[in-house]
Design goal:
Strand content: 15-25%
Radius of gyration: 22 Å
Helix content: 40-55%
Strand order of the largest sheet: 4-3-2-5-6-9-7
Bound molecules: S-adenosyl-L-homocysteine
Largest sheet: 7 strands, mixed
CATH architecture of the largest domain: 3-Layer(aba) Sandwich
Order of helices and strands: HEHEHEHEHEHEHHEEEHHHH
Distance between the termini: 66 Å
């Protein structure tokens, strides 16, 4: 309630109009803030990247707990407000940019001592996938990601084989990171109240990908092909690759994978085995 009033007053005082197109739904539930901070497991040596500072409610909780906070906010008007609100925190750097355009490596280049950052954020949901893919691209300078996502997206990210949410996003993320749910968050924890519920998730970037892959491009293409029609048997999904049927049958037999199962039943390890064998086959032709 308290944060709700503070948010309303701040907006009013600064003549701010909320921008729907920038996904401005501010978190106003202090219990959820506590959980975000707790599950991010921060220490005073940590450097944090926040995406979408909004009114700075999360930023001001992060700043005293870590060495440095970089916070990216696209909305110039909010940036003015943030500069005022956060002026006491000398370790906060506010970056007025589109997160998708920020060169994270360059940002850290100014700080020799910073090797890795932890991402802690209530991101704008309209660009969830681009943000996740960007962060995964920069995985060598990121150790952990603690963030809110739309509940359904969170379910897809953490899903295990056999679950209806298991698919391309689960595999892309779990290939690079250990993913887990920290808590479910109801839509009423935000202002204005969005249509969707949320999930707080933790991703811990793995030192090396979960499985060893001969050719990553081939692997990700295979994943897309297998899940394009997820209800089909994998043997049928592979038709577009035009492998010889007998060769394929032998290969499935060797790998102990049933060609009649659906892709959603395959573990990442099985898809990796399949990918490496198919890749070998393709490059030997
Ligand atoms: N972290 C705040 C705000 C979350 S709302 C809170 O929890 O209350 C999402 C925020 O992301 C908004 O402030 C919005 O202006 C900002 N935003 C939207 N698109 C962005 C982009 N492309 N890059 C950086 N920030 C963005």
């Amino acid at each position: 309630m308290f944060l709700y009033l503070e948010a309303k007053n701040l907006l009013k005082k600064n003549n701010l109009i909320l921008r729907k197109r920038w996904g401005q739904n501010f978190l106003i539930d202090s219990l959820v803030y506590d959980k975000i901070i707790q599950s991010a497991k921060l220490s005073l040596n940590d450097h944090v990247l926040e995406i979408g500072a909004g009114l700075g409610f999360l930023t001001r909780l992060l700043a005293p707990k870590v060495s440095k906070v970089f916070t990216v906010e696209i909305d110039k008007k909010l940036v003015f407000l943030l500069q005022e609100q956060l002026s006491d925190f000398k370790n906060v750097e506010i970056i007025n940019q589109d997160i998708l355009k920020v060169d994270l490596k360059k940002l850290l280049n100014n700080y020799q001592e910073i090797k890795k950052v932890k991402v802690v954020a209530n991101i704008p949901y309209y660009i969830t996938s681009p943000i996740i893919f960007k962060l995964l691209e920069y995985r060598d300078i990121i150790s952990d990601i603690t963030m809110l996502t739309q509940k359904e997206v969170g379910e897809r990210i953490i899903a295990a084989p056999g679950r209806k949410d298991y698919g391309i996003l689960s595999i892309m993320v779990q290939y690079y990171a250990f993913a887990k749910k920290a808590m479910l968050v109801e839509n009423s924890s935000f202002f204005p109240i969005p249509k969707v519920d949320s999930m707080l998730i933790n991703l811990r970037i793995l030192d090396k990908p979960k499985v060893s892959i001969e050719n990553e491009k081939f692997f990700f293409n295979l994943v897309k092909t297998l899940f394009h029609q997820r209800r089909k048997m994998i043997a049928n999904n592979l038709k577009s690759y035009s492998y010889n049927r007998q060769v394929l049958a032998k290969l499935f037999n060797e790998l102990k994978i049933d060609p009649k199962v659906r892709a959603e039943m395959l573990s990442i390890e099985e898809i990796a085995k399949l990918s490496n064998s198919l890749y070998k086959l393709a490059s030997s032709n």
